[in-house]
Design brief:
32% helix; Metal_Hydrolase; Amidohydro-rel
Length: 403
Amino acid sequence: MVASLVVRNALLLDVESGEYREGDLLSVDGRIAESGPGLRAPAEAETLEAGGAVVLPGLIDAHVHVAAATADMAELAVWPPSYTAAHAARIMAGMLERGFTTVRDVSGADFGLADAQAEGLIRGPRLAFCGHALSQTGGHGDMRGRGDDTPAELKCCLGSDRVADGVDGVRVAARDELRKGADHIKVNAAGGIASPTDRIDSTQYSMEELRAIVEEAEAANRYVAAHAYTARAVNRALEAGVRSIEHGNYIDDRSVELFLERGAFLVPTLATYWAMEREGAAYGLPEVSRRKAAGVLEAGMEALDRARRGGVAIAFGTDLLGPAHRYQNEEFRIRAKVQEPIEIIRSATSTAAELLRRTGEIGTLRDGALADLVVLDGDPLADITVLADPANVRHVVQGGKVR
């Protein structure tokens, strides 16, 4: 029997136009069949009464780490996979309950978690994964302390990152992640907060290495996401051909020009800095990392405003670690200081879908799209903070099933 669901008496948000339509929505076999007033549904269809509530497309978070149950990456690297998977299942269930029906994991998750979710073994958002992110020796993904002289190759694939150096080395590493089914390749093109030995303002990987990674991804019809903070690092990565910049807190006007020239996306992750300032020590962030985080949130807000005014495509991301995953929806509240409500909603729906190359399939209520829906108490166009409180999420529908 074909499964069907009809959502009655809803305010359906067309994210493309930014307008509501009153009516019903019918999903058949996991996809939206039609929408409009007074729809006729199959006799066997399950009915979900919205009672005039707002219905949005399922939300998309384009920068998560579902396996990061602690912010201490060195500790995470020595956890047994079974323990990590148990934590990931819990974290993913929480994301779904907050309205996120698809997420893009940018290091840590693998095909096992993606397959488990797709097969119904794990309750959580649909998972686009990169496997291990690529890091140079001493880079953002190299979690060895200064006194740890263990050869990097012996720690190649522990935790969320792998160390690879040289053009040949990064080609092999990229090909290996693609072999395992990666939806995209993540490269650490600059220093970061969670890493113990690099500077946040450093550039990482040579241009030849970056271009080689992009070439390997494009050969497999995939793309590259690049971790970078400063304009110098961001601009190098964009010139090398990456599709998305993760963070980008210190971009400049040249960065904006390159985003537009290359058709690239910016994925700010402001909630994580807010959480670090609030309780970084409590969720395992080492002191050296907490010092690096000072002032990054303010810079990120300025970068978001610069990108918005310049017309850059901006997707929704959070980058939360450890217990801070519960603050995922806080990103909506933080961005409201710079963006209009519909811009923020699009960043978490249609723009994120475009970044994931799934336009028309997720992040929309168009006919033929996957029936991913969020039934919401309150009007997010009038007050975006409605989305900042998960308590306002009344129902989540994923693939035509009430979750």
